[in-house]
C-alpha cells in the first residue's frame, strides 16, 4: 500500500510552483496559482500526512505530477 505524503512536502512544492495561500478557514487552506484564478487546491492542514486519494486530487487540480513532489525532497 502506498504511503501517505507529508503535508510539509506538499505545501513546499505548491509554493515552489507558483501557488499562493488565498484563504484558510479552520483546518482547510485554499491555494491558487498566480495567473490562473480558475483552479483552487484545498488542503486539510490539521494532519501531518495527506492520504493518497487527497494527494491524487491535489495533483489533478494543480496540474502538477508526482515527479514534481518527489524532486522536492
Automatic annotation (TrEMBL):
Give the matching Gene3D superfamilies: Hypothetical protein
Question: SUPFAM superfamilies this protein is in?
Answer: YcfA/nrd intein domain (SSF54786)
Q: Write out the coiled-coil annotation as residue ranges.
A: none
Sorted alphabetically, which keywords does the UniProt record give?
A: Endonuclease, Hydrolase, Nuclease, RNA-binding, Stress response, Toxin-antitoxin system
What Pfam families does the annotation carry?
HicA_toxin
Q: Which InterPro entries match?
A: HicA_mRNA_interferase (IPR012933), HicA_sf (IPR038570)
- List, in alphabetical order, the Gene Ontology terms for molecular function in this entry: endonuclease activity; hydrolase activity; mRNA binding
Similarity comment: family membership: Belongs to the HicA mRNA interferase family.
* Protein name in the entry: Type II toxin-antitoxin system HicA family toxin
Amino acid at each position: 500500500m502506498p504511503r501517505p505524503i507529508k503535508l510539509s512536502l506538499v505545501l513546499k512544492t505548491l509554493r515552489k510552483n507558483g501557488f499562493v495561500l488565498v484563504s484558510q478557514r479552520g483546518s482547510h487552506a485554499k491555494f491558487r496559482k498566480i495567473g490562473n484564478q480558475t483552479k483552487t487546491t484545498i488542503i486539510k492542514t490539521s494532519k501531518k500526512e495527506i492520504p493518497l486519494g487527497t494527494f491524487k486530487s491535489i495533483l489533478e487540480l494543480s496540474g502538477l505530477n508526482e515527479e514534481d513532489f518527489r524532486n522536492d525532497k
